[in-house]
């Protein structure tokens, strides 16, 4: 539902709780699909909930050993948030 921008006000806080414990949490598709769905939301989403964007920035800025697609997605998120992407 996050990937379809449905129920974000309720789902994003829950997703961040899960990602804080397990950044590579798997939904129904593949390992890390929750992270992918969250970091690829539009900048308007994070403008609406900046505190969640900051929390997600903390989670993803410390991640290493991600698959290439998630590296691109997390770097894009960090860049859009004005944060420095890590290694």
Global shape: globular
Tally of strands:
0
Query: Termini, distance in Å?
Result: 30 Å
Count of domains:
1
Structural class: mainly alpha
- pLDDT averaged over residues: 91
Note the beta-strand portion: under 5%
CA gyration radius, whole angstroms = 12 Å
Number of helices: 5
SSE string? HHHHH
Low-pLDDT segments: none
| Proportion of helical residues | 55-70%
Largest sheet: none
Which features would summarize this protein structure in a list?
87 residues, mainly alpha, 60% helix, globular
Task: Characterise the protein shown here.
With 87 residues, the protein is mainly alpha-helical. The chain has one domain. The protein is built from 5 helices and no strands. It has helices at residues 8-21, 33-39, 43-48, 50-61, 68-80. Helix 1 packs parallel to helix 4.
Topology:
Blueprint: H1 8-21, H2 33-39, H3 43-48, H4 50-61, H5 68-80
In short:
The chain has 87 residues and is mainly alpha-helical. It has helices at 8-21, 33-39, 43-48, 50-61, 68-80. The protein contains five helices and no strands.
């Amino acid at each position: 539902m996050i990937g379809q921008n449905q129920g974000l006000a309720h789902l994003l806080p829950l997703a961040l709780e899960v990602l804080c414990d397990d950044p590579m949490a798997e939904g129904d598709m593949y390992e890390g699909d929750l992270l992918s769905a969250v970091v690829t939301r539009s900048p308007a989403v994070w403008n609406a909930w900046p505190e969640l964007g900051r929390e997600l920035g903390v989670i993803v800025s410390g991640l290493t050993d991600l698959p290439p697609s998630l590296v691109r997605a997390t770097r894009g998120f960090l860049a859009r948030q004005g944060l420095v992407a890590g290694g």
